[in-house]
Amino acid sequence: MVGGSFSIILKLFLPWKQVLNKRDWLLLLANTLDHFDRALYSLMVPIVGPLFFPKTDHITSMIAAYSLLATGIVTGPLGSWLFGSLVRTRPPTLVLYYSLLGVGISSFAMGLLPVYDDIGWWAALILIALRVSMEIFATGEATIARIL
Predict the structure, then answer these.
(1) Could you give the 3-state DSSP secondary structure of residue 92?
(2) Among candidates 135, 142, 143, which has minimal Cα distance to 85?
(3) Residues 58, 118: contact at Cβ < 8 Å?
(4) What dihedral do alpha carbons 29, 31, 32, 36 form, nearest 10°?
(5) pLDDT tens digit string along 7-50?
(6) Residue 136, class by beta-carbon neighbours within 10 Å (0-12 exposed, 13-18 middle, 19+ buried)?
(7) Considering only CA atoms, which of 45, 34, 39 is closest in space to residue 99?
(8) What is the pTM of this model?
């Protein structure tokens, strides 16, 4: 009896099939992966910092690596403005696909990035550029998800 009443309550208050369609589930997954990326990057800073910044001072390289998380403060309004203006002239789903593609390409390129010992300061500069572009695209995805 308890299981039956619980399923009735779920059907009344949580009609998942009617509330969330396939597109909504994909938006939820993309947003979850974006937050997972930020959390994973912040946990991996002790490893990433010395790889992409000079190893002369471990604390300085960690501060530089952690400062890349602050790029979201600058890129947030920029990404919202850019993708908000794009969504006015193009279909929202198309702009959403562009933003998700941009996040994927930026993440993939970060995985292929050479380290500081190989190309010097270029590694740090390219990492910064990729993080900024990924944050712009991720902010665009979050903005469009609110619209949809």
Answers:
(1) helix
(2) 143
(3) no
(4) 130
(5) 555 555 555 556 667 777 777 777 787 788 888 888 988 888 88
(6) buried
(7) 34
(8) 0.73
